[in-house]
Write a structure and sequence with these properties.
This protein is an alpha/beta fold and 233 residues long. The protein is built from eight helices and eleven strands. It has a five-stranded parallel sheet with strand order 2-1-3-4-5, sandwiched between helices. α6 crosses α7 and α6 crosses α8. It is elongated, with a radius of gyration of 18 Å.
Length: 233
C-alpha cells in the first residue's frame, strides 16, 4: 500500500481527498500546517507528498525546499489555487514535481498521483529489488544508478533534485537523440504544460551547472530551434 502525506489546511479539501484516496487503497496521513508536515516527512517513510502552497504558518514553497534538503527523490505534487504561470514555475523550481490547480477533478488528481509514483519508482524500502546492470546508465564518464538513485561523474558524486534526476535519466535513455522541449515536458513532468515559460531551459541549465566543470566535456548540447541532445563534444 502506497503511503501519501497530505499537507493542506482546508478541512473540506482534506476530507474529500482523504476519503477518495483511501477508497483506492492509499494510506493517507494529514498535516494541517507546514511545520507538522516537515516533521512527519522527516520522521516517517512516505511514497509521495501532496502539498498546498497557502499554509497558515510556512509557505508551501518553503516547506518543499525544506523537504528537499533531506529527501531529493520523493515525488511532491503541489495542489493550490494559485494558477498563474509564474506560480507554477516557482513551485517547480522549489523542488516540486507537478502542479494541480484548485478546483480540480478527483480523477485528474489520481492520474497525477499514479504518474508521479510510476515515474519516480519511489518505494518504502520493503520491496526486494535485484540489482543488475539494467539499473546502471553510463555515458562518457557520467554514471547513474537507478536503484540507489546516485549519480557521479569522474567518480565524484553529484547531488540532484528529484526533477533534475528525472531529466538526466530521460537524457540517458535517449542518448544522441535531439529531444524537443515539448517531449521533455511530457516525459519529465508528465503533462503538457502550457506555461509560456522557459521551465525546460531553466532545468537544463541547473543540470549543466552540476554536471559540467571547466575541465570536463560538455554533455548536454542545445540544438537551436529544435531542443537538446546528450552527446559527446
Amino acid at each position: 500500500m502506497k503511503k501519501i502525506i497530505l499537507i493542506e489546511d482546508e478541512s473540506a479539501v482534506v476530507s474529500f481527498i482523504k476519503k477518495g484516496l483511501q477508497e483506492l487503497n492509499y494510506e493517507i496521513s494529514v498535516a494541517f500546517d507546514g511545520k507538522t508536515g516537515i516533521k512527519l516527512v522527516e520522521d516517517s517513510s512516505f511514497d509521495m507528498v501532496i502539498l498546498d502552497i497557502m499554509l497558515p504558518d510556512i509557505n508551501g514553497l518553503e516547506v518543499c525546499k525544506e523537504i528537499r534538503k533531506k529527501n531529493k527523490t520523493i515525488p511532491i505534487l503541489f495542489l493550490t489555487a494559485l494558477d498563474s504561470s509564474e506560480n507554477i514555475v516557482l513551485g517547480l523550481e522549489s523542488g516540486g514535481d507537478d502542479y494541480l490547480v484548485k478546483p480540480f477533478k478527483f480523477i485528474e488528481l489520481v492520474a497525477r498521483i499514479k504518474s508521479l509514483l510510476r515515474r519516480s519508482g519511489h518505494h518504502t524500502g520493503t520491496e526486494s529489488i535485484e540489482i543488475d546492470n539494467e539499473h546502471i546508465y553510463q555515458f562518457s564518464d557520467l554514471q547513474l544508478n537507478d536503484y540507489t538513485k546516485k549519480v557521479n561523474r569522474g567518480g565524484l558524486e553529484i547531488s540532484l533534485t528529484s526533477t533534475e534526476y528525472k531529466l538526466l535519466l530521460y537524457f540517458l535513455n535517449n542518448p544522441e537523440k535531439v529531444i524537443s522541449r515539448a517531449e521533455i515536458l511530457e516525459a519529465v513532468w508528465g503533462v503538457n504544460y502550457e506555461l509560456g515559460t522557459n521551465v525546460v531551459d531553466v532545468y537544463v541549465n541547473y543540470l549543466r551547472k552540476k554536471l559540467d566543470t571547466a575541465d570536463e566535456e560538455k554533455l548536454i548540447h542545445t540544438v537551436i530551434g529544435m531542443g537538446y541532445v546528450l552527446k559527446k563534444s
